[in-house]
Specification:
It contains seven helices and 13 strands. The protein binds zinc ion (2 copies).
Length: about 210
């Protein structure tokens, strides 16, 4: 019944693609598929898991650059991010080339996500929170029962996401983190988009951007 996860850093940006799975049913999802399809599918197969979907937090290349390649090999729905990140995903051909990533065409997710939507993995329910600021369509995924937050590039260990990109907004980011994320229980574990995990309690006490 337990919800399990493994961080699988991908791309030169070491983006924390995360394999989440339900121990009992073996149902699995991959979040933020930035690249390295063969390795990711190898991790799924090695654990005998049944990959059911790709979940995306936002449209940056290190988080979505591998989606088209992966879904050519496994026919799974792509859920998220919020539609306000479509302009990022439509720029993938130019951006993958600019960053020297393997080329990706643009794509359209199977379903855009909105505040209050829910995603399920086996018996585990994740609530969608829309947190614009780093990108306008950034979402984070919160499983209350497992006390786990998939935070993408909103929140890092003692830091927050950059807001100097097109349509970034620092005030929006801070306000949304305060109103929707810092209200979660202190012992909620946070999977960040890059680097180490943290907890809500740690960030409340030690994050210099949120004092
Ligand atoms: Zn990002
Ligand atoms: Zn990132």
């Amino acid at each position: 019944m337990a919800l399990q996860f493994e961080l699988l850093p991908v791309t030169p940006f070491m983006q924390n693609c995360t394999l989440l799975w339900d121990e009992q049913s073996r149902a699995a999802v991959l979040t933020d598929v930035g690249g390295e399809t063969e390795r990711l599918l190898g991790e799924v197969a090695a654990r005998g898991l049944d990959l059911q979907a790709v979940w995306l937090t936002h449209g940056h290349v290190d988080h979505v650059g591998g989606v088209v390649d992966l879904t050519k090999q496994v026919d799974v729905p792509v859920l998220g991010p919020h539609a306000d990140d479509d302009f990022w995903i439509q720029q993938l051909p130019a951006i993958t080339q600019a960053y020297r990533f393997p080329f990706s065409p643009p794509f359209t997710p199977t379903r855009w996500l909105n505040e209050g939507d829910t995603l399920t993995l086996g018996e585990h329910v994740f609530e969608v929170l829309h947190i614009p600021g780093h990108t306008p369509g950034h979402v984070v995924l919160y499983c209350a029962a497992a006390k786990l937050l998939v935070a993408g590039d909103v929140l890092f260990l003692e830091s927050i996401g950059r807001t100097d990109f097109p349509r970034g907004n620092h005030a929006d980011l801070i306000r949304n983190i305060r109103e929707k994320i810092l209200v979660l229980p202190d012992d909620t574990r946070v999977i960040t988009g890059h680097g180490a995990m943290t907890t809500i309690g740690h960030e409340k006490r030690h994050n210099p951007f949120l004092r």
